[in-house]
Amino acid sequence: MSDYYTKISDLPSELPVFPLRGVILLPRCTLPLNVFEPRYLTLVNDVLAGERMIAIVQPEGNEPEESPQGRSVPLRRVGCAGRLTAFQETEDNRVLISLTGVCRFDVAEEVSTDLPYRIARLDYSRFADDLQRGKGEDDVDRERLLKVLRDYLEVNELQADWDSINRSANEPLVNTLSMLSPYGPEEKQALLEAATLKERAEALIALAEMDMAGANGDSGSTIQ
Fold first, then answer.
1. CA-CA-CA-CA torsion sign (18, 42, 8, 100)
2. Pair type for strands 30-35 and 78-89
3. Exposed, middle or buried by CB within 10 Å (0-12, 13-18, 19+), for 13?
4. Strand 14-19 and strand 95-111: pairing?
5. Residue 94: how many other CB atoms lie within 10 Å
6. Rounded CA gap, 143 and 152, in Å?
7. In Å, how far are 25, 39, 81, 89 from 193, measured between CA atoms?
8. Which helix (H) or strand (E) holds 28?
9. Contact 81, 102 (CB under 8 A)
């Protein structure tokens, strides 16, 4: 879906913000969301009538709520714009949506608004390469990534669809693993902000190796 946008000027300069702690979105990957809070139901309705895009950003800090009513928890600097590509209403007044990642951004500033949700002005300039499908795929050490993934799954007694994994190109493989990875907000943000696909793959490998070392009784640390 990000092929719909071929240059930075195609992207909206302002977008509604959906703050989600521990959740990241990456280009050409899909993020399903279960929306039930009234202000975000309003956001989805407005998005459907407009640009069909939402800014996914992690909030700063460790507060239990991502964006409490009546005040704004500061946002992290980097997020990702997603296009709303699927929508379904439920009988209990929720909506199930899917966002497809388009391009990362820096949050330039928040925009004053009377709407029940937040609006941010975005700067995509550092992430123009996100609009190029497959950028940097050849630089990824796929063999090492898959070996570490296999070892990680074995240590944690987890299963995977290896037919799908083996069919996946490097970009969707690395980005999907980053989004699904069971790490905390700081690690997820580091994966989001990795400058290249190669760096993101290397960060995934480092995180998995530290987890496995910890499982074997060694001390580990988070990536910086």
1. positive
2. unpaired
3. middle
4. unpaired
5. 14
6. 14
7. 11, 28, 14, 33
8. none
9. yes
CB 146 within 8 A of CB 154: no
Structure tokens at 181: 């990875």
The Cα 92–Cα 186 span in angstroms is 34
- What is the residue type of 160? A
Query: Whole-model pTM?
Result: 0.91
Question: Rounded mean pLDDT of the chain?
Answer: 92
Closest by alpha carbon to 98, among 178, 34, 38, 168? 34
State pLDDT tens for residues 53-101. 999 999 998 766 665 555 578 999 999 999 999 999 999 999 999 999 9
| Residue that the structure tokens 């709407």 belong to | 115
Phi, psi of 88 (to 5 degrees): -145, 130
Q: What tens digit of pLDDT does each residue of 170-179 get?
A: 999 999 999 9
What does the chain come to in residues?
224
Q: Which two tokens stand for residue 223?
A: 């990536």
Distance CA 2, CA 140 (A): 21
